[in-house]
Specification:
alpha+beta; 8 helices; four-stranded antiparallel β-sheet; 3 domains; Herpes Virus-1; elongated; Neuraminidase
Length: about 650
């Protein structure tokens, strides 16, 4: 055997990818990755019942006796022994040499236990597997080889698909980088144009200011000159009259009396002080700038968005997903969790206990220490935390969330008089605007504006940039909690203390109300959040009665589902609700720390996210799309986005 081949075998097969040393008691995981038993013991937390492969991140259940119960890798052990003894003459072909049993010393392994699906020795047959059906390995190995060869061939055929996917994803990365550079250039160019236009407008305004100032100054100067002339005349006449009165005789005084009287009366009638009739004194030069002018400038700058598109990658991605689904399903006959050294090791891993790992890049950075589980049909499905937003202020209380155009996450902060808008792509705070009232919930109108429910039951309508353009006063709501807007623009408000739901017309006038205190189908006990589906049915979270009730658009009762408890389909103080495009209903189960998915008729489907996904006290929920969920954690001052 050449040294080169020996080096390749050592590197490829006999080196643990955790410690990067030769295997010591190799253990194989269901994903077929092998590691040292000691390395896995250190890798797995103390009392963990599952193990996640360090390489591919596939999760599987551990045997009852932990890592020790995992199946040993006979091939690794055999190759290691051959390298140790230098017996590698047959390394390139099938080796007919005996494999020794790990449990019974030098006893050769020559039998195959069909129930356990493992090779065993004669001692194993007599003791641990005596009640099992077993055959000679030579009788089944050909069939197994052929079956594995067929599977290998099918798997190899998928390699070009993945290679093509990687190549096209790399091209997509380059394309995305070019898109960023292009958009950055467009933003800079637009900003330069806007700045140039603003500079031009500044020059125009300053020129206009100079023109107005010169005209006003000229008028004032002319008036000032006139008044100064009159003052000189007044002083001259006063001096003349004073001297006549002081030094003139009676005849002289009487001779000029008429002349002096007329002159003095004329001078006395000249307007002075407040009596001056000067137009420029009644005018003021001002700069007029409306409060919304700056937001108008921002709007003219446009915005950056990311549109979903169907392109040449779609069929490829669909093919990859089908392949992943096929290779993620465990074989009904394979028992990779059982160890021939420990026949009492565990039963098979059930499909519902295994979460297949996605091989498609997520498109967003994976957050450290967060679970990364792909979509599953299991009743309790894990979710991927895409991002979490944290406000600059630690006092954020996100009591209401809404999604605008799949780009903006709008958050009502009940502890301050502001609404915050975050990017659904990055989680960064885009902008904040004051609403002069403590907001309880937010919703998006059909026109794309933001509706804000105040603590007094009033509704404020703002543009996406936060400019208020309409205010509807309270319509008798005692304790407003939830707000929804249907496709007709009607406002749906839940009144917790009033135990009812009120519906307002688009202009803010009352349309109708329904409910009342109680536990009947048409009554409520502290209704919290509300939502509407694609049929404009009204979905109400009846928190005190621990259930969800659905009414049609006129307030007629349709159905209810849920009772108090911790089991599937039960709630403990449900809060936020929302509906997807198919009418399925998502419910934030407050005290059970989970979000559950129900069909449109109220049948429990599965859990979307739960405490195992580090969810704590979910409050409000909203959907970015049918597979991306926004959840507010009121007590943790966070808003999280999950992919499910």
């Amino acid at each position: 055997m050449s040294a080169k081949i020996l080096d390749e075998i050592t590197e490829e097969f006999l080196v643990c990818k955790i410690c990067f040393e030769d295997y010591k008691k190799p253990k194989v995981l269901p994903c077929l990755h092998t590691f040292c038993e000691g390395c896995l013991v250190k890798y797995v937390p103390g009392k963990a019942r599952n193990i996640t492969c360090p390489l591919c991140r596939e999760e599987t259940a551990l045997p009852d006796n932990g890592v020790a119960g995992l199946k040993g890798n006979f091939l690794i052990s055999s190759l290691r022994e051959k390298l140790r003894t230098g017996n590698m003459e047959k390394a390139g072909a099938a080796d007919d040499g005996d494999t020794r049993c790990h449990s019974h010393g030098d006893c050769p392994v020559r039998f195959y236990c069909e129930p356990c699906e493992i090779p065993v020795c004669a001692q194993c047959v007599k003791k641990d597997h005596k009640t099992h059906k077993h055959v000679f390995m030579s009788d089944v190995v050909t069939e197994k080889r052929e079956h594995l060869s067929e599977l290998l061939l099918a798997a190899r055929e998928k390699v070009p698909v993945f290679e093509t996917a990687i190549r096209q994803l790399s091209e997509a990365e380059d394309s995305k980088r070019e898109e960023r550079e292009r958009v950055e250039s467009e933003v800079i160019s637009t900003a330069e144009k806007v700045v140039a236009a603003i500079q031009q407008q500044q020059d125009y305004l300053l020129t206009m200011l100079d023109s107005i100032y010169l005209a006003e100054h000229r008028e004032l100067q002319e008036e000032k000159d006139r008044v100064e002339t009159e003052l000189v005349s007044l002083r001259s006449s006063c001096d003349f009259t004073e001297k006549v009165l002081q030094f003139g005789n009676d005849a002289e005084i009487l001779s000029v009396t008429n002349q002096m009287t007329g002159r003095l009366q004329k001078l006395s009638d000249v307007p002075l002080g407040e009596d001056l009739k000067i137009d420029s004194l009644s005018r003021e030069i001002r700069y007029v700038m409306r409060d919304d002018d700056m937001s108008w400038v921002a709007e003219k700058m446009g915005h950056v968005e990311c549109h979903m598109r169907v392109d040449r990658h779609s069929q490829l991605v669909e093919e990859i997903e089908k392949t992943i689904e096929k290779f993620s399903k465990p074989s009904s006959g394979m028992d990779l969790a059982r160890d021939p050294e420990n026949p009492a090791s565990p039963k098979k891993v059930k499909p519902s206990e295994r979460r297949p790992t996605s091989l498609i890049p997520n498109g967003v950075p994976e957050l450290e220490d967060e679970p990364l589980w792909a979509k599953s049909n299991a009743p309790f499905a894990g979710a991927t935390l895409l991002l979490q937003t944290e406000a600059p202020s630690a006092g954020l209380r996100p009591c209401g969330v809404a999604v605008r155009g799949e780009m903006d996450i709008v958050v009502a902060d009940s502890d301050s008089m502001v609404v915050q808008v975050f990017s659904s792509l990055t989680g960064n705070l885009r902008h904040t605007f004051n609403v002069d009232i403590y907001p309880k919930d937010v919703a998006i109108t059909p026109e794309g504006n933001i509706a804000i429910l105040g603590c007094d039951g009033s509704i404020k309508l703002c543009t996406p940039q936060g400019r208020l353009f309409r205010h509807n006063d309270s319509s008798g709501v005692v304790d407003p909690v939830g707000l929804a807007v249907d496709s007709n623009g009607r406002f749906v408000i839940s009144d917790a203390d009033g135990h009812q739901v009120k519906v307002l017309n688009p202009n803010g006038t009352p349309a109708f109300a329904f409910g009342g205190y109680g536990d009947d189908d048409t009554q409520f006990d502290d209704p919290s959040y509300v939502a509407v589906n694609h049929r404009n049915d009204i979905i109400v979270s009846d928190e005190g009665n621990h259930c969800i009730k659905v009414f049609d658009s006129s307030g007629k009762f349709l159905r209810r589902f849920g009772t108090q408890g911790e089991e599937e389909g039960q709630f403990d103080h449900p809060k936020g609700v929302c509906a997807d495009s198919h009418g399925n209903i998502l419910v934030a189960d407050w005290l059970n720390n989970r979000v559950a998915l129900f069909s449109s008729d109220g049948q429990f489907q599965r859990y979307i996210v739960a405490s195992t996904d580090r969810l704590r006290r979910p409050c409000a929920v909203a959907l970015i799309s049918d597979w991306k969920l926004v959840v507010s954690e009121y007590n943790n001052s966070r808003v999280k986005v999950f992919r499910f």
